[in-house]
Amino acid sequence: MTRLTGSALRVTVYIGENDTWHHKPLYAEIVHRAHAAGLAGASVFRGIEGFGASSLIHTSRLLSLSEDLPVAVVIVDTEPRVREFLPQLDELVTEGLVTLDDCEVIRYVGREANRGTADTKGKKSL
Questions:
Q1: What contacts 24+ positions apart, CB below 8 Å, involve 23-28?
Q2: Mind listing the pLDDT tens digit for each residue in 14-33?
Q3: 22 dihedral zone (left: phi>0; alpha: psi -120 to 50; beta)
């Protein structure tokens, strides 16, 4: 079981949905590398509207449907572990914004392996 409480660091990576790394979505590459690095967790959030350095507004509104909506990848772990991961983000993120924020983890409890969690078909695993 994974536990993380107390002082932590949150890194948020703001990129475009269509940004890629070797023909793969950039947000997926960031999540997979965070997982491989053993970080506590990573989540991807798709925005409905926004703009960045290009000053182009990207929106999901029907009349001006964008194919490149904003995406935020959020990773939280201890400060040393996040800072150790930053060089990988420096390599991956050629366009976008990366921010760091101090935060406090109140509760984070991972699932135990083989605890009977639901799989993708809604059945219990053994």
A1: 26/92, 26/93, 27/71, 27/73
A2: 999 999 999 999 999 999 99
A3: left
Q: Which helix (H) or strand (E) holds 107?
A: none
List Cβ neighbours of 39 (8 Å cut-off, separation of 6 or more).
75, 77, 81, 82, 85
pLDDT digits (tens, 9 = 90+) for 77-89: 999 999 999 999 9
CA neighbor of 98 nearest in space, from 10, 7, 8: 10
In whole angstroms, what is the distance from residue 85 CA to residue 10 CA? 12
Main-chain dihedrals φ then ψ at residue 62, nearest 5 degrees: -55, -40
pTM of the model: 0.78
